[in-house]
Amino acid sequence: MNTSIPAARTRDIRRDLLLIAEMVAPQSRVLDVGCGDGMLLEYLSREKKVDARGIEVRQSGVNACVARGLSVIQGDADTDLRDYPDAAFDYAILSLTLQATRNPRQVLRELLRIGKHAIVSFPNFAYWRVRMQLLLDGRMPMTAALDDPWYETQNIHLCTIRDFDELCQRDGIVVEQRIAVDGQGNREGWRLQGAAANVFGAQAVYLLRRRAG
Known about the structure:
This protein is of the alpha/beta class. 31% of the residues lie in helices and 23% in strands. A seven-stranded mixed beta sheet has the order 3-2-1-4-5-7-6, sandwiched between helices.
């Protein structure tokens, strides 16, 4: 009986993962931190011929990645990135995981140390639907990107697009590209550009690098 996991197809992958894939150059070295079941890594390996590696904290996720034929080890972004040498990868990716780390600022520094570029995505806590739920209901909001109740969520350091922009500026991180998407995963329109993205963007994806010198 064949128990292998079906290959990731474009229509099966989350839109934010496809945006990340667009930022990755072909035949590059990629580390996906918190890679889950390996869908993004498999897609990058097949479509862009990257040298794909991953780290995942859950054993079930590691098992799923191995079933896809991927090179993935079990590890924690907060504690295990320090074991990787400087500039070991062209891209270090952290998708919808930064807000679940204990020390997101240090994790971001480690990503930029081990990768020539870092690609980071996160849910925007200033999204207008989040604001409305807090204002009208007075309760912790739930959206497509924040879909767990407060007592079950792993998100311990939620932030906004504006917060993240300010952190990058404070730490001398160069933002090469920033994409905000609405609740349906669309990224077009004036509302998702500039300062308006902090209100109308449900999620954000950043391509980052360290400032030279």
